[in-house]
Amino acid sequence: MSNEEYRVYSKRWIYLLASCMIQFSNGNTWITYAAITFYTNDYYANNNAALLFNVIFMVLSIPVGFLACWWIDKFGLRSAYHIGVWSNFIGNVIRLVASGSFIEPNLRFPIAFTGQAVAAFAQPFVMFLPTKLAAYWFADNERALANTLASMSNPIGIAVMYSIAPVFVNRTTPDNFFNMNIAVTIVAIIPQHLQRDSDVQAPPFFEGVKRCFRSRTFIILGICLGGGVGLFNALYNNLQPALCVKGYDPTFNGGMGSLLIGSGLVGAAVSGIIVDKWGQFERVMKIAFCIAGVAGASLAICINYENVQWWVIASIFVFGAGGFSVFPIGLEMGVEATFPVAEATSTGLIIMIGQVQGVFFVIMTNLAVGKPTPHDLAIQTCVDANQNINTVLTWKWPFLIWLICLCILIVLFVIFFWPKYKRRNYEQGQRIAKTQNDFSLECEKTRV
């Protein structure tokens, strides 16, 4: 690697904006149907439609993830960005066609599922970009902030869609899927072109994968941070049906998904500034993880009661602020722990590990649902009287299982995660070597 000192360019912020925009679009494409589960199942004539639309993103990210890791490291950010943009856009167009009233009801789900799968193909290509973009285009004291802004754009897209989906599709407009998908498709058109330059020599892709899995630090990080990603996916999938069975208003349910991301954005921004300034990756992550654990326990309890909006709001706010602040820092920590492995490789592996666990958590929690009491059926807001009441379920045990998994990950992370800052140590060594070299040259000039 060269001892040269690189300069930063103003256009790095344009590239960051472009990355944020495609992350945002792909996020709201993923979660479109999660906040309107029962309307989705009814409109697409499949009792598991909303669940399958969600899970396909997680399932496809595993095989496609390996392709995306290799592609980004081999061909760079620009081509990966184009693949992500076009796959996301084409998938949204297919979904839009499938949601039209002119499509036969029995054909809507297979066509829409195809579009969702095409958009899901884009996810690894866009979600693996932030750490590499931050490393190539931003100064070392800006990386965590840049990575935070790009990484959090995906959950922001999720939050926005979680809020506006019930506005489009609700009791008065239960079939308004076409207009909703028009809005999502328009957002998918917006992202601009992204360019890159390459100045870093990394080991070959498969060698990088081997180095990651030879690192005990990375394995612990992958399991715990990836597990956190999986638990967030399961929470988003289960939050709306868990709240509606206790009589909470659909608008409130959608707002809770947005609050989760909004508070997470605040927490991630604060933690990003802290680690950029002081570099306390490990300490910040452990504190935030523990805060999220306490809030998660509170949420798992209050989700079983009606008319405790204040409790639900407080639990979700604190959980989001603590939990989401871990994610962008963790991706940077993955780069630090595996340096000089290419950034997209370490980031991609962590996200893929998270998606594997996400599929497991979603399936496991959905298998643990219970039958509602007569009181629950009387107050529920999940379905109308003329819809299938048998689809209304209780979520006490799924959230208890979710909490147990969260606690296990926190204990593993706090006890076993003790990283070395390989990239920062290397760069510090490079700066010292450059300073010594400059000093030697000045001394030589003085003697001459």
From TrEMBL:
One Pfam family linked to the record: MFS_1
Family annotation (InterPro entries): FLVCR1-2_SLC49-like, MFS, MFS_trans_sf
Keyword Transmembrane tagged: yes
Compartments, record wording: Membrane
Transmembrane segment boundaries: 12-39, 51-72, 118-138, 145-165, 215-236, 256-275, 287-305, 311-335, 347-369, 399-418
Predominant location: membrane
Record keywords, A-Z: Membrane, Transmembrane, Transmembrane helix
Presence of keyword Transmembrane: yes
Gene Ontology molecular function: any one: transmembrane transporter activity
Membrane topology: Multi-pass membrane protein
GO cellular component: membrane
Protein's UniProt name: Major facilitator superfamily (MFS) profile domain-containing protein
Species, as recorded: Caenorhabditis angaria
